[in-house]
Amino acid sequence: MWRRARTGPLRLAAAAGGRRAGRRALPPLPTIPSSSVASSSSRIFRGSVWAPYRTLSSEGGASGRGGECWNCGATGVFLSCGSCGSVQPVDPAVDYFQIFGLEREYNIKEHSLEGKYKDWQKKLHPDLVHTKSEKERGFAAEQSALVIDAYRTLSKPLSRALYLLKLEGVQVDEEKTINDPELLMEMMEIREAVNDATDSETLEKIQSQIKRKLETWSETFQEAFDKRDFNSAVEATQRMRYYERAVEETVKKL
């Protein structure tokens, strides 16, 4: 039977000058607000998260089964038509992974994602569409917003995990807190260590420790998701949320 990895609390007091128990308890870190999956550009995406999987070609069109160009009727088009060059409207049947020609899986290569993101943005650059009709400029603006949201969602472990769960029909309550005294104590220790740190070297050490914990739970999510153990996958995302927020706290102070 699959069992999630157990990890003990971080010991950060030494890194921040040895200040430990006996200090006034700090409140736990708040939960992260809704991820970019529910961002403003999701209005453009509408219900596409429930669409069946489809593969995009390197040219940006859906291989053999793309949409039909509104201008010339060519098939297999996605962002722009290879035949007439017309910018296409957002296809609600395409999910974020398909936009970048990626398999729908958690472990993706960041450099591959970034490269394809830049390619799409070049094709949508205002300088390239300013001579187009108002209709096409509108399509380009919507496509650009969608590509940006897709990149932001897939480039971070937590938002990517939440999006994968959403594609599977699993809704996660992102406002739900975890009733785990050990985790909450660890978050208080982290918060106190960050507040007490007086130099960047100490903060970087704390951040490195937190990132290792985030990576551990990221691996736990992947293992659970691959086994279709969605309960454990959801639990992993809840813990990832705390560690991701803790990393953000160190970044603010660096």
Automatic annotation (TrEMBL):
Location comes to: Cytoplasm; Mitochondrion
Q: Output the Pfam families linked to this UniProt entry.
A: HSCB_C (PF07743)
* CDD domains found in the cross-reference section: DnaJ
Which key words tag this protein in UniProt?
A: Chaperone, Cytoplasm, Mitochondrion
Q: Has keyword Cytoplasm?
A: yes
Q: Does the keyword Ribosomal protein apply?
A: no
Under which name does UniProt file this protein?
J domain-containing protein
In its UniProt entry, the species of origin is given as Eragrostis curvula
Q: What lineage, starting at the top, does this entry show?
A: Eukaryota, Viridiplantae, Streptophyta, Embryophyta, Tracheophyta
